[in-house]
Design a protein that fits this description.
single chain; alpha/beta; TIM Barrel; 2 domains; six-stranded mixed sheet; 18 strands; binds zinc ion
Length: about 425
């Protein structure tokens, strides 16, 4: 006789409960096992899961006074999705640039005409903390409409100390107003600001500002858990990135890198060598870097929406990464330039269609592995006792429909820490 479990929430009537529990994210683990319980059920208390198992065993759940029983009517239940790579706070608009790009303008031409990322930087610098917080809330809720209950948020559109700190503070303030699990990343080394372009001395001065002023300020105010660097011929070199990441580690912060988006650039190898929690993009990746990342336990984050939106054909080879023992995640890269989309399910579909993932690998990539890539795995990313009650209930009996229904995911309900989200619209 098993002992009863007290709960204030009991979910029944599921066709399948996809737990994503267990094997992850160890390198070499079987990422095709999504841990499906046919006819599963789940109980929670105060927003935390207290029991997961077959519905036939729910007689051991004791629903406390005022507790809620939710019958999902034969639908599939998954962990809430985790978006492990977003630049979701930005001010201003760039839709006109999209139109110009379609008419044939190159990114270089758009940048030269005052557009591109520097235009976003200008608008973000001009935005107040209240404005940035409102933007963060709106974007977070939009992600949630597509099933996301946990997310990573990067700075990187300030490129000077005050605005970088303000972006991170906005993320923190927004997170306090919602039940999502949120982690933040400092990305002062996103690109060079306008004032640091044109001379090696100015470039070096900016790098020093990031290392000597911004990172210490972020660490002392506890505004971010990670530091990220964009390694690219138009951004920062591997050696510059190493200096930034060294400073991050010296301040007790975790590290991430944007690597290999446009060419094999040594960023992935650096991520492995320095023990980064994730290496993101990886459209171009040397075979030895795959081995190194697998050995280091660094999660490879696929961002296929950026590949699509930039009309490139160089999708990251997720299949090869998994076959060589890397843990692979998938994320939106939500940002105004290369991927203005809040649909993580669309990115999962692209990961299946172009990066070689199976349905269950894509689900694991956007839940358990994504949580591991942002340090959120102790609290979310799988349906297990002790974790947050973060749920995505599909309007379908099969998890396969999440991947199959292109661009229009069948979502019935999303619960973050047991609360239905997004809440009432705030803007
Ligand atoms: Zn990015």
């Amino acid at each position: 006789m098993t002992s009863p479990v007290d709960a204030d929430f009991l979910l029944v009537g599921a066709s399948e409960v996809v737990t994503c529990a267990g094997p992850l994210p160890a390198a070499g683990a079987d990422q095709s096992r999504a841990g499906v319980i046919e006819g599963g059920a789940l109980a929670a208390r105060e927003g935390r899961i207290v029991w997961v198992g077959p519905e036939a065993e729910t007689d051991r759940i004791r629903l406390i006074e005022g507790g809620r029983r939710l019958d999902v009517g034969g639908r599939a239940v998954l962990p809430g999705l985790v978006d492990t790579h977003t630049h979701l706070i930005w001010a201003g608009q760039r839709a006109d640039e999209f139109e110009r790009r379609l008419a044939g303008a190159s990114y270089g031409e758009i940048l030269a005409a005052g557009g591109g990322i520097l235009r976003t930087v200008e608008a973000t610098r001009a935005a107040s903390l209240e404005e940035l917080t409102a933007i963060a809330l709106r974007q977070m809720d939009r992600l949630a409409r597509f099933g996301v209950t946990a997310m990573e948020i990067k700075s990187g559109y300030g490129l000077e100390t005050d605005t970088e700190l303000r972006m991170l503070e906005a993320a923190r303030q927004a997170a306090r107003q919602r039940p999502y699990a949120v982690t933040t990343t400092f990305l002062g080394a996103h690109t060079l600001p306008r004032e640091a372009r044109g001379s090696a001395a100015a470039e070096e001065a900016y790098l020093k500002l990031v290392i000597d002023e911004m990172i210490p300020a972020v660490a002392s105010r506890d505004l971010a858990r990670f530091v990220d660097v964009f390694i690219d011929e138009h951004a920062f070199s591997v050696e510059q990135a190493r200096r930034v990441l060294d400073a991050a580690r010296n301040h007790g912060l975790g590290i991430k890198v944007h690597a290999g988006q446009l060419a094999v650039d040594g960023g992935a190898a650096l991520a492995a060598e320095m023990g980064a929690i994730s290496a993101d993009h990886l459209e171009h990746l040397a075979p030895e870097a795959i081995e190194a990342l697998a050995r280091a336990g660094t999660v490879g984050v696929l961002l296929p929406g950026a590949t699509l939106f930039l009309r490139s054909h160089d999708y990251a080879d997720g299949r090869r990464m998994i076959d060589r023992g890397m843990a692979v995640a998938v994320a939106t890269d939500l940002n105004p330039g290369s991927c203005p989309s809040e649909s993580l399910p669309l990115m999962m579909q692209l990961a299946c269609l172009y990066c070689g993932l199976s349905v269950d690998e894509a689900i694991v990539a956007a839940t358990a592995n994504a949580a591991a890539a942002s340090g959120l795995d102790p609290i979310t990313g799988s349906l297990e006792s002790g974790k947050r009650c973060d749920l995505l209930v599909l309007d379908s009996p099969s998890r396969r429909d999440l991947l199959y229904r292109l661009g229009a995911p069948p979502i019935w309900r999303v619960l973050a820490a047991g609360r239905q989200v997004p809440g009432p619209a705030t803007s």
